[in-house]
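> example.struct
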């Protein structure tokens, strides 16, 4: 008993350590995926922001070029005829507001101002004109200029004839003030103009007209802060965006909930196993005491036999549950390994992750359902129902597909879709799973290179037939009649209980009123299940 207590505390300590490691690993694994999604969303919004800037520059560029490539403008730069100004910029004609501009400056080829029209919001207009021409007289690339503490989308257009002939007579400087609130809209929690210059870019965005943007990301608990820097201009232009990390915080909560549920399930499982062990220990002690005290009494002997029968029944039930759980647990382990491997090679995406989660959820539901089914296995009040053979077989296959793929076992299916049976769907699915599992084990034990399992279903006038065939070499004649007996197994100790095919036969013949038998096929064996056809 003392050794048992020592082992008990050791197992408890290992279990606690396992839960801690499991929670840490799953948290780090899933949180990194959510961080990637968060970065993708932030990058999309930065793309949208830069696209807005590009559209503003494009509209400005078209308007300025329309005036610059006009013959009247070409003549006006030389003649300085006031009629041009009167016709184009008087009241009730084209105005800055109508053109969506804040300034237009017409200069000759020597950069002498011929005419300018500026928004009323621009102060110190002479200085504004002088600074604009000075900062932008050697470059025709559209840009963003800082003038009088404000930033303006700015373009410079060459004044030419409409047919692009003749020499350049001057230039038009056109611009519109950059409105940070209008630019942001609802893209970011906050967008501001920054004075801080970065040195190492996180990634680069190219535009149609402007020089490229360098993007630098910084992470805080609440925001992804992106510094957006426009390169190759005299006056550097920096934007700073704040993207709220709501997905990050929500994902942390979901991961905590997920880990808590898994931890609770493990604790319940360990508690049940521990309770059963304690119960067994107590029963053993009590049983020894009764045997010692009442060995000479027939009545006590009978009670002892009854008690032993109960324990045997309980042990058989636990063995059945363990056998039914082994395959789903193996499949669940493989799912986790596949997710880890897919993540390592960089092919993990949301669709693959969701498929893996769906498979894992189905496995855990089936494991829970197994307990309920075995608890009520011998009760006569279980409800029968109609079910599709194809659908039920596919349920069993889905529990095994990752195991089969991992062991390079080909599964071939030839199933008639419209076959409907009447009985216990979940038990029938478990029977299929038992046969598939045995076929898989036989293929692996015999090291079959071109390993195959074939499943066929069809119906005759009186029966529904399901055949499961493998090429594992078949079954020896001297043991063929024993394979459906309880506790008979050809596997090594600890690898098989000998209950699977026994339970399959009980389910098919006792509970489904069908038959199960084997027949030899080239290079293997075929399990044949016959069920009575459903009458209308």
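> example.seq
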């Amino acid at each position: 008993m003392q050794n048992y207590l020592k082992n008990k505390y050791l197992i408890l300590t290992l279990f606690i350590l396992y839960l801690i490691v499991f929670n840490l690993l799953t948290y780090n694994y899933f949180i990194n995926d959510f961080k990637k999604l968060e970065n993708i969303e932030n990058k999309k919004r930065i793309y949208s922001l830069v696209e807005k800037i590009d559209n503003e520059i494009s509209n400005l560029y078209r308007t300025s070029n329309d005036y610059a490539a006009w013959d009247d403008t070409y003549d006006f730069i030389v003649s300085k005829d006031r009629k041009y100004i009167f016709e184009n910029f008087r009241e009730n004609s084209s105005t800055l507001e109508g053109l969506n501009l804040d300034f237009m400056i017409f200069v000759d080829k020597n950069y002498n101002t011929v005419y300018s029209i500026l928004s009323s919001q621009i102060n110190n207009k002479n200085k504004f004109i002088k600074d604009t021409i000075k900062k932008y007289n050697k470059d025709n690339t559209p840009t963003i200029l800082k003038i009088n503490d404000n930033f303006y989308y700015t373009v410079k257009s060459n004044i030419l004839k409409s047919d692009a002939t003749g020499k350049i007579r001057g230039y038009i400087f056109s611009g519109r003030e950059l409105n940070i609130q209008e630019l942001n809209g609802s893209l970011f929690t906050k967008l501001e103009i920054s004075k801080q210059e970065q040195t190492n870019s996180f990634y680069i965005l190219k535009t149609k007209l402007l020089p490229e943007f360098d993007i630098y990301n910084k992470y805080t608990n609440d925001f992804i802060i992106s510094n957006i820097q426009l390169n190759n201009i005299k006056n550097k232009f920096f934007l700073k965006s704040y993207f709220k990390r709501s997905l990050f915080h929500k994902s942390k909560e979901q991961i905590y909930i997920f880990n808590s549920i898994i931890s609770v399930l493990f604790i319940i499982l360990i508690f049940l196993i521990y309770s059963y062990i304690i119960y067994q220990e107590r029963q053993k002690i009590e049983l020894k005491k009764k045997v010692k005290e009442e060995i000479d009494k027939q009545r006590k002997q009978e009670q002892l036999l009854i008690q032993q029968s109960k324990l045997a029944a309980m042990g058989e039930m636990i063995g059945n549950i363990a056998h039914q759980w082994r395959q789903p647990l193996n499949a669940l382990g493989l799912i986790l390994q596949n997710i880890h491997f897919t993540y390592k090679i960089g092919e993990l995406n949301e669709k693959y992750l969701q498929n893996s989660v769906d498979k894992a959820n189905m496995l855990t539901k089936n494991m829970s359902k197994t307990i309920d089914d075995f608890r009520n296995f011998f009760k006569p009040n279980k409800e029968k129902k109609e079910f599709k053979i194809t659908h039920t077989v596919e349920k069993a296959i889905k529990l095994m597909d990752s195991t089969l793929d991992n062991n390079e076992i080909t599964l071939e299916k030839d199933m008639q879709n419209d076959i409907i049976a009447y009985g216990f769907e979940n038990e029938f699915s478990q029977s299929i799973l038992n046969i598939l599992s045995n076929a898989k084990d036989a293929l692996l034990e015999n090291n079959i290179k071109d390993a195959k399992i074939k499943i066929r279903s069809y119906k005759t006038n009186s029966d529904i037939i399901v055949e499961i065939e493998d090429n594992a070499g078949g079954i020896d004649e001297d043991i063929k009649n024993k394979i459906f007996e309880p506790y008979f197994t050809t596997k090594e100790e600890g690898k098989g209980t000998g209950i699977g095919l026994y339970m399959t036969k009980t389910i098919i013949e006792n509970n489904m009123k069908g038959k199960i038998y084997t027949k030899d096929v080239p290079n293997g064996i075929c399990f044949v299940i016959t069920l009575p056809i459903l009458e209308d």
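> remarks
Residues 294-532 form a domain with the Heat Shock Protein 90 fold (CATH 3.30.565.10).
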